[in-house]
Please model this.
Amino acid sequence: MIYPIVVYGSPMLRRVSTEIDKNYSDLEKLIEDMFETMQVSDGVGLAAPQIGKSIRIFVIDATPMADDDPSLEGFKKAFINPRIVDENGEPWAYVEGCLSLPNIREEVKRPENVRIQYYDADFNFHDETFDGIKSRIIQHEYDHLEGVLFIDKIAPLKRKLLKGKLNDIAKGKAQTSYRTKIIK
Ligand code: CO
Model:
């Protein structure tokens, strides 16, 4: 099932999500649907709040970026109940986009490395460190579970310049190739 993407202007995107347990109903189906929704929307990451669920899950499939960065080959995972336990390294800038912020792309600075503890789709525990684009995508998706969007991390002046675009998104006026929804 393909979900509409919850976009900017929805208070849902500003909530801190809650953990789930392994008996969460239809978890396997939910993860499958999240991958499908992300792929048809041309995203490389999707967090549960973006489909209207305030729970701690995100999925990543960076394989479409593997042509430019071979290290991303096969980087396709679900992260359940993730906890970032450490971030370090020199912050670096990279242009980010977000399915919940259609037609907005801005440079965001984030630390180089992330150490994260999480459960996979089979509820096996992992404690891993990632760097480069992998770390970047994880940090972006993790922020969604904390109610944070990448526009919160850009200079206030740049954010001011986006005001018109953001208002349009919040009014449901943004042009997208995928279905969107505002949840009040
Ligand atoms: Co996003």
Residues 98-100, 140, 144 surround cobalt (II) ion (CB under 6 Å).
